Amino acid sequence: MHSRRTPPTGPSHQPVPPAGHPTGQLGSDLDAATIPWLARRMASGGLTSVRLTLAYLHRIATVDRRVRAVLAIDPSALRQAAESDRRRAHGRALGPLDGIPVLVKDNIDTEGLASTAGSRALRVPPTRDAALVTRLREAGAVLLGKTNLSEWANFRSTRSTSGWSGVGGQTNNPHALDRNPCGSSSGSAAAVAASLAQVAVGTETDGSIVCPSGHSGVVGFKPTLGRVSGDGIVPVSAWQDTAGPVARNVVDAAILMSALDVEGTDYASGLRPDALRGARVGVWRKAGADADVDRVMHSAVRVLRRAGAAVVEVALPHQVAVEAAEFPALITEFKHDLERYLRTRPGAPRALAELISFNERDPVELSRFGQELFELAAVAPPVTDPAYRRQRETATALARASIDETLAAHELDVIMAPTNSPAWRTDYADGDAYEVDSSTPAAVAGYPNATVPAGFAGPLPIGVSFMADEGADAWVLGCAAAFERIARARRAPGYLPAL
Questions:
Q1: What global pTM score does this model have?
Q2: Based on C-alpha coordinates, what's the Rg of the chain?
Q3: Which three-class secondary structure state does DSSP give residue 217?
Q4: 184 is catalytic
Q5: Core-most of 151, 185, 465, 498, by most CB within 10 Å?
Q6: Which of 12, 105, 150, 162 is catalytic?
Q7: Which whole-number Å values give the CA distances from 64 to 117, 195, 282, 422, 499, in the listed order?
Q8: Known catalytic residue: 208?
Q9: Residue 86: pLDDT over 90
Q10: Distance spanning both ends of the chain, measured CA to CA
Q11: DSSP alpha helices (H): ranges in 261-318?
């Protein structure tokens, strides 16, 4: 068994600066730093990538003892940073992401390093990088390490606890450590909130980027399906899965998204501070479920009006039918897509039935909750089944209609909704306790969705999500950036032991 910060191939001897080390002087700056600010400092010679990387390694060695967001450190991180510094010294910087430390969710393949999806069954590392990791390396990013996640992207049990995996244990919410970080990109969002890296990559099937980002009080962006390659990512469903950026501010999310995008679209250049001026925004309040959410939404509407937007109250149709069709479709897709992925991983089980047997024998895997979803998927109909095909067609078509019809009926430019209710207390007996979320329409439709901090319930963050139709990624990010500029709702976490 390997420690949380040890790649399966052997121990990591990554140098970590001691307390009082000069890199510690960056500590107070990291929370507010943006990639453009860091890039300017590195270009002027006032900062090096090595120094920046050491500062983040120092925070991982100290702060992450409480958060438990980082599952493995890449032992080549400092070498990558030094290579970036050499490029910059010779005038060959690769772009704004060159030399910037990035964490990647551990269901994304990185050659020779972890990539477990949180499962002890995948402890033999992959032999190649995922396509998006290749793009990050080509952009000059420093791959700092891998983040913990809800095991198997929260698709193993009907009573799972977000942020827990057999490999990484429990990731905590950095704002209040007894509270849950939401899943499944829990480690990516918690790490960014705690300034353990400048940015991180998460993945989402339905809510797994935006929910943890909302809970940890950071920005998360789920792009249009197909904008980021899914090659080399442990899947739930090719119909809904996508990777996307997590950051402390929208400009960093846009810069990271530019590197991840298969067409290399420059999202950051399109961010305008007045993007909401004159826009028609549909507000899907989802009112009545949580008083704190209602209060934050009321405040968020005031922000929209201050930004010059026209506000229209809306309710998205078809939600009951979408949710009814989505789950059985995912069950079938999970088995098909996962087994196809497993064939690319030497040393890993080849079939879902083998994973079920592994978990039954392993002393850790079933210690917190079961594998009911695995067992359902094992006996699910194949993807050629007519009933399955009707479920997928229904889910996707109605999810798209719910957004498209609402935008058209009210002549809207974008829809805003609450991302999350306040984080619940982590509870292994009863599992997760979702109250308010809005991720399903955009997730099932394959449409873009960006969450941005909007307010707090005591110390617990609440976010709002902006969503629009297919391909409107740059516009959605622009709306989020304009909201962020006026709301200024984000704050650094307090690491409270309990509430």
A1: 0.95
A2: 21
A3: coil
A4: yes
A5: 185
A6: 105
A7: 20, 10, 39, 22, 19
A8: yes
A9: yes
A10: 33
A11: 291-306
